[in-house]
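User: Okay, second chain of the day. Same drill as before: sequence in, structure tokens out.
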Amino acid sequence: MVWFDHYFYIEDNSINCHTIIELFNLRKSVTLNSFQIVYLLNKVKYNMFHFAWSGLIDFTFLLSNNIMFLNNIIWEDHLFGIKLLINANLFYIFNIKQYYYRIRSNSICYSNELYPHISYLSIFFDNKIYARKYYERYSWVVISKHIIKNIENLKKEKLKKIMKKAFFEYYINRSQQFLFCTKDPLQCHNDILIRVDDNILLFKDANKNTLYNFIIELYGKMHDIILLHEQDVQNKQEQIERLHQDMQSIKNVLDQTKYLLSFQYKYGTAKLRIKSQLPYILGKIMISSSKSKFGILLMPIYIVSAIFLYHKKKVIYQNKYSKLTSFLPPLESYPDYIEALKEKECFTYKLGEALIRANKNWYKGGYIKFWFEVKKLKKEKYK
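Assistant: Same drill. Structure tokens below.
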């Protein structure tokens, strides 16, 4: 028989799937026997096998080995696949994708619908979801029973041993999931699989002692599952708490940013206010003008013009806004006040302050002192 690879087409991209052949990580197409395939399944920890549409099979081979799909159940491709492994001599694995396998929410496997052949189950349950869940678990009991029986009856001991190792635990667990059903209109519980050492029994064939040990073991498993679930819930709660704290931090940052932007839009920044003060303006003019001979020559004119414009603007603002002092908050209340103080300590601002002092004390030799002060400021600047 030929087994080819396929693509997954998942409608909502909710799951990321790998095909079995991808998991095998084959570099090219190869011919393998059943033992080699089960060995690879074990190696990649894929503890089940299913086969339906992903290959080409000689129909006479299927008839002669009585390989067919069971009627009226789902997951029937698992039994079909196991029978292929038991009976086929060789598989040619064609390592090229030939098919799109579509996974959608309302398919036979993923639907909550009760199809006509199982609609009668609705009379036993409160709603169709419970009836559908019963049907799925009933199907696993039937399929698992047949799979275990087929492997147990296998004559090839080497293949039988590796198949038991690969598949028994998975299909026994699948069968035992039926224990979560609260109703059993088809009396399926009798076929639940129970492992006793190396033997597999049906629920109906187990004695009281075996059932007692099974219940104790099941209770232990349930206890472990509950502990894992509780740990998972706790981890999720911690994650939610961390997310909540992160969101709160982000909210605080956003609120602070909103406040800063609102304050800045209404009142500007402390840095801008300091840069609009006369000492800074004069210092800036002197620095920029001193870079060329022409600038030095016109510096006095630039300074006088700046002083004139500064006082003119101040008068205009005072006339326009009689409450200007109360309109602008104190400099200390600005968010960037500490940073803005650095501007008052910078060379530009101090240079402007020195010129204003020199101008106020011109009759006491203020401008002579100014030149000495400029030299001192330059030394401090380049320290």
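Strands lie at 2-10, 30-33, 55-56, 90-103, 193-196, 199-202.

User: Thanks, on to the next one.
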